[in-house]
Design brief:
Layout: H1 18-26, H2 28-45, H3 48-62, H4 65-73, H5 80-102, H6 109-131, H7 137-144, H8 148-154, H9 157-175, H10 184-208, H11 210-219, H12 230-245, E1 257-259, E2 269-276, E3 303-306, E4 309-310, H13 316-323, H14 328-331, H15 334-337, H16 343-349, E5 353-358, E6 371-374, E7 384-385, E8 388-389, H17 398-403, E9 409-414, H18 448-475, E10 481-488, E11 493-494, E12 500-501, H19 511-514, E13 518-522, H20 524-530, H21 534-540, E14 545-546, H22 550-557, E15 560-562
Helix pairs in contact: 3-5, 5-10, 6-9, 7-12
Length: 579
């Protein structure tokens, strides 16, 4: 029996159609991409050493553009030997990153680690390029403590595109690379030889360019925080080790607290401590800024503005706990701070009622042992939309609460203030006085004046909030002797020298990030009770001040002392005669 297949007129299969055969040969663009993908993966997977060197080369060349721009700029008009040093530096960085990856065992782990590093490097490269961010350990601490609302403010279409093209797509490719099987003897032999050779190569280059390298590391230290992604790896490991080794029991480092006799008043003392977020002194009308950003406070005769105040750090994660510690910037350790007593603990032990009101990303463990209200976790109507609340929300219900106070009280208000890059979301529409404003998180893509306008509107809104708090304290002058202190945690860069936002390493941070506004207001009863001399206060306000003074000033303002108290760091001490 004859069997026919594919045709009713022949005894054999039909020949393929000419057009179909041509398509099969060419395969189309997707087939070409698949062949390229398979070929590259096969080439990379043929040798572990080839894979780590190729990946490290792409990482250092393609994900470190800002590092190379800043490094090249340090050379001025480079000579031939300077260019050779740049080549040597690139080779050193490539080999160091390759050696780190070479330590990973197995066929698949190096590829997965490379994919992970690619994802991290893409994000780090974006923020270094867009905002001029330096990723030191303080910046990383700030990143790890950032909440969802702050993170959402940084998201943009450009970030997603950047992450997709430089992160997700390369990472997907890398994760599919399979390295050759090796026995442990082969790994020990070839891997050990390669590792030793790499170290020798790095040592030879370092010795050969020792003069250049020593000068570069000594004179341009901040640049090491731009080497991506080893900057993030080093900083993260440092923070993890510090956290793991920290003492887990709370230690009293301040000593017993005592109430100071003196003063003629009998009313309870009430102190409002308002911690501003990201306000810079350069944008405060009270400090000489040419724009009317403080229209209400500048017409309030009782306000004393300290014009030379400096922050403890350039990020909330560092500055906030530092200003509540008596240790000061030079001795403060952020890793240890959460296990040490600080100002709020001392006040509570001294019989002061303490409350923390938060409209920011948390108190960084400062308020762990006192009453606290987080308005972003429990938003109250009218002034909140999702996780974002305007700072006036912290005044809701406050008048009724004050009516019930009977003891000396400190209330801390932790503002959202001027936190960027979404400055235009920090104030209600009614405060859009300066226009046009930048409404993109990609500040570098806006006109600089639009960025400044949006930021200045946040300062205008802060002025409004502080004026409202002063009005409230005035309304209760018959019941309390009151004091308001406002200080920002750090400043902000608005495009000066290509920098945006904050958290630059302190030793090279610009003035815009460390010079902060600090002001006080006192009720007439408080001034009289403490014997404060107004002329003396105005003179003291022109002298240097800092976050280091906040602990001692607040402690003494509530008539308390302990062994940690330093009179020379009490901003009111030289002008106070009452206690």
């Amino acid at each position: 029996m004859n069997v026919t297949t594919g045709s009713t007129t022949g005894t054999g299969p039909c020949p393929p159609h000419p057009r179909a055969a041509d398509t099969a040969d060419r395969g189309g663009p997707w087939a070409a991409l698949r062949r390229l993908d398979a070929g590259l993966r096969a080439w990379l997977g043929a040798s572990r050493l080839r894979f780590v060197l190729a990946f490290a080369t792409v990482l250092i060349a393609g994900y470190n553009l800002r590092f190379w721009q800043e490094t090249f700029a340090t050379l001025g008009e480079p000579a031939a030997k300077d260019l050779l040093f740049l080549v040597a530096l690139a080779l050193i960085l490539i080999v160091v990153h390759a050696l780190l990856l070479l330590l990973a065992p197995g066929r698949r782990l190096p590829a997965f680690l490379a994919a992970l590093l690619c994802l991290v490097a893409a994000i780090v490269a974006y923020f270094s390029d867009a905002y001029g961010v330096y990723f030191d350990k303080d910046m990383l601490r700030n990143v790890f403590q950032t909440d969802a609302a702050e993170t959402a403010g940084l998201l943009s279409g450009r970030l997603f595109a950047w992450f997709l093209l430089l992160g997700a797509l390369p990472a997907t490719f890398l994760a599919r690379v399979r390295l050759p099987e090796e026995s442990w003897r082969q790994r020990l032999g070839t891997g050990g030889l390669a590792f030793a050779g790499g170290l020798a190569f790095v040592a030879a280059l370092a010795l050969g360019f020792s003069a250049h390298l020593a000068a570069f590391l000594r004179e341009h230290k901040p640049l090491r925080y731009l080497v991506n992604p080893v900057n993030v790896i080093y900083g993260s490991v440092h923070l993890a080790l510090a956290d793991a080794s920290g003492t887990r029991t709370l230690r009293d480092i301040e000593g017993p607290v005592q109430r100071v006799a003196g003063g003629t008043g009998t009313k309870p003392l009430l102190v409002f401590l308002v911690v501003g977020e990201t306000a810079r002194a350069a944008s405060f009308e009270l400090g000489g800024y040419e724009r009317p950003t403080n229209p209400r406070l500048s017409h309030e005769p009782g306000v004393v503005y300290f014009s030379k105040a400096r922050s403890c750090g350039t990020s909330t994660a560092l500055s906030l706990p530092c200003m509540f510690s008596h240790l000061g910037r030079e001795r403060f350790d952020a890793e240890e701070a959460r296990y040490q007593t600080q100002l709020l603990d001392t006040l509570a032990r001294g019989g002061v009622d303490v409350e923390w009101r938060d409209n920011n990303s948390g108190c960084k463990h400062v308020c762990d042992r006192v009453r606290h209200v987080d308005y972003r976790e429990h938003p109250r109507g009218g002034l909140c939309a999702g996780e974002l609340c305007f700072d006036e929300v912290m005044l809701q219900g406050l008048e009724g609460e004050l009516r019930g106070l009977r003891r000396d009280t400190l209330i801390v208000f932790h503002q959202a203030g001027s936190h960027g890059p979404a400055y235009a979301e920090r104030y209600p529409p009614a405060f859009e006085t300066f226009a046009p404003t930048c409404r993109s998180p990609e500040l570098g893509r806006c006109e600089r004046q639009a960025v400044v306008n949006a930021y200045d509107n946040t300062i205008l809104y802060t002025d409004h909030n502080l004026a409202r708090q002063i009005e409230l304290l005035k309304a209760f002058e018959s019941e309390f002797d009151s004091l308001l202190i406002y200080v920002s945690d750090h400043g902000e860069s608005l495009g000066e020298n290509g920098l945006y936002l904050h958290a630059a390493p302190y030793f090279m941070a610009p003035d815009e990030q460390t010079h902060v506004p600090l002001l006080m207001w006192m009720s007439s009863g408080y001034r009289q009770r403490a014997g404060l001399d107004s002329a003396c206060l105005r003179k003291r306000a022109t002298a240097p001040a800092s976050h280091d003074d906040i602990y001692h000033t607040v402690l003494a303002a509530l008539r308390l002392r302990n062994a940690a108290y330093q009179r020379q760091q009490d901003l009111l001490a030289s002008c106070r005669r009452g206690w």
